[in-house]
Every structure is written in structure tokens, then in C-alpha cells.
Amino acid sequence: MAAKMTFTNPFTVVNAPAGSGKTTSISKSIKQLIRHSNKKILCITFTNRAAEQLLNRIDDEQVEVSTIHSFISNFLSTFFEKREVVDLYVEVFGSEIVRILSSSKEKDIEKIRKYKNKKDIEEDEIVNLQTVIANIRSIYYNETQFTSHLYGGLSHDDLLRFSREIFKRFSKIRNVITQAYSHVFIDEYQDTKHEILELFYYSLISTSTKLVLMGDEMQQIYSETVNDFQHIIEKDFYKDNILKNNWRSQEHIVNVLNNLYFDEKYKQIAVIGGIEKPKVHIIKTLNEANTQEGALQLVLRNQELFEQINAINLYNAFEERYAFYDKYNSKQIITDMTSENPDELMAILIFITDIIGFFDTGRHSQLIRRVSQYKYSNKALWDIHKHEDKVKINSYLRALSQKIKEDMNINELFSFLAEIELIEDGYIDELRHAISENEDFERKILEIKYAEFNNCYQECKQPSVSTQHAVKGEGHDVIALKLADSSSLNVQMYLFLELLAKDIFDYKTLKGIVNQINALKTKYSEIIGDSLSGIKTDVFKEKKELLDQLIGDIIYVLTENEDLHNFPLVKDSFQRYRQSSNVTNFKKCISVVNKLEGSILAYKLFYVGCSRAKEKLDVYLCEDKIQGFITEFSSKMERFGFEVINETIQAK
């Protein structure tokens, strides 16, 4: 069984490689801790799903489990009404408020016009900072990407930033944490924003409350998270490497994972004996991958996932709806097939699919229970007193069952639902009105076939495809990992494989180089006041001396690894700039260093994908992408413990 941990140090970080039983260890440790303390224990998780999994294992009022945004918004909600907190908001965001009020940009002028309308301010009256301050009665979290500065609203990211400032300023608020909790656990710390890690760290210094960070650096998928806190971890945190066993994967897969992992001290011991070697399949195209029936296929992008299950139009429509909404994203919405889905359109589609599934399979008690749970079901219809009531309901359900099996779109489904009485009178019209508030979403969603939703529904009930970054923490018997690049996500998978094959890829060295270069890019970008990747010709010419200096500084950093510095992609790009220092060649140099960063992300995604497999692992990649280094690549994969199968040779 996974180890139970003890925490005697004020600050502890537990690096838990994939399959090490982290969730089990957390739950066992917490159960032990609550036996010896009257205080609560706070567990911060990265996702709602992780929170639910932990709550299922620890059902105790002494344990509080929450995502960070839920915790912060709930914890600080009472303080958001305090005048001192409102004043701090103005102190932190006052310069942005002044910028909006003095701006001549059309979008800011429109913001002021709407502000006047909402606050009943005369059109010719001037709105100044004092006006805004007087009108902000409390601060609130608006659950979007945008901070509503004129109203006291906080975006997803600014909630974290402002919370850190609140904790810094007010010791009484910090004391509430230490008085309430004996321990604070932060799960998946590697993907947690540094503002949150700082918030808890500085709140708990010199107190009896202990802070425990749990996660795995190899599974850090999101950039700009823990990196700015890493120096504090190195300096002040006790490193606990107690989780040595791998409880998920068979021995041959664990062997591959150990060879992939960047640090030997985190090598794992396989609890499950070897079954068969993992395989690398070299094929012509990923579409030709002959995956095993029942395998969970791991693809790179959400688009690939929804294309594969024939639900891409549904995904695109919800992308439109949730483009600027940060509490949930489109994928979370259309893959949550529970009765708790917060989107009302999805909720009604889930409801009718659930009840027809129960009706078709004769599970009548579950059908009645589901109807009672849905707040918009027509309760009068379902209040059964006589045989005629049953007959009526049965006819409606049979008609709906037949209808949803036809080639109908969502608009047609709504019209049919309005005709029958299963849903509360008037609710379909309310739903149509809510959808119409976003014209682009309305245009897309109403024409989408119900079958696309049903494809998504069935996929969620029995998954066959997932994105590579979405399966952290989960194991599956058979994994089919499909390798691909993505410029939009900056996943440079084949660059990583080439660097790995040629013994150039060293995670620690490359990470250090990339961090130094990113610091240089940030510094010079701030000096010139423009983005380096999208720099215009006139700005380049004006700042050329500075930008030449930046290129020189980057080259100096790259020389820390001579093999990397001489790698053709790197060497050729910087040589071209030296020969002809124009804006095009400058952008190519910046693109190259961005690709190096993308190779690090690819490395982690490759590891995460492999680590999901319990019994069987098949990796698929395209022959033309590795043509120039196929011999070195095959040899490297075999040394790592893979069996390499070149199916393009077998097919000839």
C-alpha cells in the first residue's frame, strides 16, 4: 500500500512521480492527522475533479477540500466588503482605472459610457477616480478573464494577485488561516500560480500551521506557475522522497519511466511484475495507427479529440460561448455529464439523454429519481396518481426516445420538447432567450445535430480518447500515445525526440538555459516596450543596437551547452542574423529559442502520456518526422526499454 507520511517540518515538498500513490498517501496522512488535532486541515487541489476524488476518500467535517479559486473567493468574500480592502483595491488597480478614464481609445470610451448609464451619471458629467472609488461598495470575483476595474470586479488571475496583496497587508486575515488549520496541503503544486504559493508561505512563516506541497515537476504542464517560487522551495522546504513505489504500471513500463525521468533519485520500484515491453510504432501517418480495441488514445489537442469522436461542431460552439469565461472552459463544460453541469443547455441535454437511457433499458426507479433531481422537469406531470398518468408519461418518453434517434438538430429538439410536457412550461423559451444573448453561439449551436452531443455523452461514459495533458493522475490499462507537434501550444515533440536521440537533450541544463533566455527576453521587451516575437520593422530599426545586444546575450547563454549551440536549427538561425541583422532573422532567432522551450513541454507530455499506462503502452509517430535521425532514435528508444517497430518497412 502507498506510504503514510508524517510532517514535522514547517514547510515540506513531496515530489511524487506518476503512479506513486500520491492521492492515497495524502488521504491516509490526513486521516492520521485529524485524530490528533482539533483544527481543520485545508487541501487545495488543481481541479474540481481532484477535489471530488479526495473528498470521496476523506469524508470528515474536519477536512476542507477545494480548488484555489473556490477557496479564495469564499474565504475572502466577507472581507471584500471592508472599506480597507476596497481602498487596497484602488491602491493596486488605481493606475489602470485612471488609464481607462483618461483614454481616447474607443473601447475605453465605451466602458465609461456604459459606466455612466449603470450609475445614473449625466452624460456630460466627468467621471474621475474619486467618482469610481465612491461607487465601489465591495470587491467581487467576476469569473472571467477580464477585471472590471471601474466596478471592483476581479478576473481569474487578478483574484490571485489581489488576494496575495490582501494577505500581505492584513495580519488579521493571515491569522484566520493559522487559527483555523493545522496543515495546508497544496496538490499539483507544480501547476499552481506562484502568487498562491507565496500567499500561503508568507502567511504561515513562524506559525504552527504546516504547509505541504505535493506534485511532480515532470508533470508541470502549464508555464508561468511555480517557477517564480522555485528558489524558496530550494531554500526553505524539506524534500520528502518517501514515495518510491509505482503502484500503477507493470515493470517494463516503470523501467521506461525511470529512464525518461530527469533525476535518478526519483527512480521507482515496480510493484507489478512485467507483462510485455512498451512499443514504439513508426508509421506513415497517425491516421494509420492500428490501435488496440479498448485502448485510451492520447492526442495532443482538444480539436483532435472532438474530431475523433465526431463532436467537433459542438466543441467549436462552446468554445465561442466560453471564450472569455475562466471559471470553466468549453472542454470542462461539454465533458461534464453529471447533473451538476453549470451550463443550462448542457444540463437539459444530459437530462433527456439520462432519462431516455433509463427508459430504454427499463430502469424506472432510476428514471424517477433523475426526474426528481432536475429542477426544470414538469413536476405536475410526474405526480402520478392513476394508470392514465403512467400511460401519458410512457407515450411522451417513447416519442422522445424515437425522436432523438433521428437526424435532428438542437433547434428541432427544442421545438419538440416545447410540444410535449416533460419540461416545465416556459423553460424552453427561457433557454432560447439565454442562448440568443450570444448571437455567434446561437447561430452555431442550434444547427448542431443532437448526435454530436450524444457522441460526447457516450465518450464520457466510456472514454476512448483524451488529450495528453488531461490525463494526469489517472491510469488506464492500455494507452495509445500519438505524438505530434503543435505551434499554438508550443509543443515541439519531434524537436525533443531529435535532441534526445542525439544525446543533446538534458532537462536540467536546457531548463536553466531557457529560464535565463526568458529572463533576457522579458528584460529587453520591457526596455523597448514591445513584444519581441511580433516586433515591427520600424521599432526594430529604432532599437537595433539593443536587440543586437540581446542576440549576443542569448548566444552567450546557449554556449553553456556546446552541442545545443552547434545544433543546426540553433546555429544556422543565429549565424543568419549575424550575417544579415534584419527584423525577419531576428524573429527567427526568437522563434528558435521558443521552440527549445517547447521541447521541454514535449518531454513532459511524453512522460505523462507513457505514465498513464498500467499494462500496455503503444507509442505512434510519423516516419517522415524522424527521417533524419531514425537510426539514433530507434537505438535510444530501445535503450530506454521500448521495442521499436518500423511498420513502414513491414508494409513495403
TrEMBL record:
BP GO annotations: recombinational repair
Keyword list, A-Z: ATP-binding, Coiled coil, Helicase, Hydrolase, Nucleotide-binding
Binding site for ATP: 16-23
Superkingdom: Bacteria
Domain UvrD-like helicase ATP-binding: 1-250
Coiled-coil zones: 105-132
A GO MF term: hydrolase activity
Listed PANTHER family: ATP-DEPENDENT DNA HELICASE SRS2, UVRD / RECB / PCRA DNA HELICASE FAMILY MEMBER
Protein name per the record: ATP-dependent helicase
